[in-house]
Amino acid sequence: MAYIEGEQRGQHSLFPTTLDELISEDHICRVIEAFVGRLDMAKLSFVRSEPAETGRPGYDPRDLLKLYLYGYLWQIRSSRRLETECQRNVEVMWLLGRLVPDYKSIAEFRRMHREAVAEAGAELVRFARPSAQSTTMVMASYSTALRSSMTRPQIPSAARRARPFGVSSSLKRIAP
């Protein structure tokens, strides 16, 4: 019996797959697209929210904000990793319309729009809150790594761990 084989790389298909067919209707990328589409970029003080009349055209801040929010949700912080995702990830290709900004443009966008991106993130939470009650939505948050410095005498005993965090003893001290 033979192995299951994929199609040949150069093989043409009768019905070519579009990026839109590869992204489901309830995918998080569609939420990001709808959210960024309803934002007033000038009100959020994004620089170059309107294209310049002269010079080389730049990337639309909406596209870079979509990329930044996607990276935030999937915990991709590096500008170089985001650039790589633009080249290989179908979700990001759909989200940006196959744009591939270089890492320097992504990093410059972050540097120039630090406050505006924070405000857009807060707006995303307000946007997602009503729908999160009826559907499930993946939200990411910054995590904090904490170091512990406990020596052997400081480790609580089994009897002390069994108590409910010392609440009863605290209540006894407060009660008259």
Characterise the protein shown here:
- With 176 residues, the protein is mainly α.
- It has a domain of 114 residues.
- The protein is built from 9 helices and no strands.
- The C terminus is likely disordered.
| CA(first)-CA(last) distance | 82 Å
**What form results from the Cα inertia axes?**
extended
**Succession of helices and strands:** HHHHHHHHH
**Main β-sheet, in a few words?**
none
Mean pLDDT over the residues? 78
Class based on secondary structure composition and strand pairing: mainly alpha
Give the C-alpha Rg. Answer: 24 Å
The total beta strand count reads 0
Report strand %. under 5%
| Low-confidence regions | 134-143, 165-176
Q: Give me the number of helical elements.
A: 9
Relative helix content = 40-55%
